[in-house]
Design brief:
Blueprint (H helix, E strand, L loop, with lengths): L34 E2 L6 E5 L27 H13 L4 E5 L9 H11 L2 E5 L3 H4 L2 H4 L9 E6 L5 H8 L3 H14 L3 E7 L6 H14 L7 E5 L25 H4 L3 H4 E7 L2 E5 L16 H4 L4 E2 L5 H7 L7
Parallel strand pairs: 2-3, 2-8, 3-4, 4-5, 5-6, 6-7
Antiparallel strand pairs: 1-10, 8-9
Helix pairs in contact: 1-2
Length: 318
Amino acid sequence: MHKIQQSEQRIPLRDLADSSEDLWTHTRDGEPRGYIDAQGLKELWIHTGTACNLACPFCLEGSSPGDKRLLPMLLSDVQSYLDEALTLGVEQFSFTGGEPFVIRDFVNILEYASRLRPCFVLTNGTAPLLQRTHQLAGLRESAHPIRFRISLDYPDASRHDAGRGKGSFEEALQGIRWLTENGFDVSIARQMEANENSAAVENKFRLLLQGAGIRENVAFTAFPDFGTPGAQGSGPEITETCMNRYPTEADRAHFMCAYSRMLVKRNEQVGVVSCTLVDDDPEYDMGSSLAASLDTRVMLKHHRCMSCYRDGASCSAP
């Protein structure tokens, strides 16, 4: 864990470390890395664990049935963190996996969280969700709204099922249909392809959804290939000089680590990491306190940080 000392806020970072050899503070070429200091806690993510009903080869979390890289969450694991987040001004609770709906206690967690703040759930929308619709129906009247984002990689069943398994495309459509018909807000997470015509791709999706009897005008979020856990990027790194592109706090507010944190469970202990994309790197572990994590400087070392730098990506958009 890398705590900001008060003196670090006054001394240029390049004077704090000697060293081209410290790859946390410096790039491979010895340049001081770019970094983000937290501006507050608007969003708290809860990682429900890497267990999933699917085993997609491109999964950025490496999730699969029974996977235990990150362990399943219980309500008792996260309740105090949800309560603490309220005192820190949190505006939304968001959930990712794995597949949240394979976790036995997930609906209990969601029910508790939605009493406190709006909630956002990332899910593949397949059998685990469909088997819990009777429980979800009871959350339509939650104090705060719950919205969902369903993974639908391509507007083509064969391409989608090639990565996620036969029948998963049709199950996801069933999940989208049930959620929209029952008053939940739904968006689509899709795969981004190089040099794509985004408007044309999303129009194909809309025609597909309309043909499936889903009339809602859903929003889309397109994601690049982030690589599997432990993958190493070989592209350019983000230096202090690069961050001149974002000179003010307002300019840097689109970086997730400026306003969000995520809870993960390892070795039966819940801890905090800086965002949803870096839990495969132990240098981003920030201890067990949400409040303390907001005093922890985040170096833009992970290769996935480039997505935020380049595109302003947010895992909770739109």
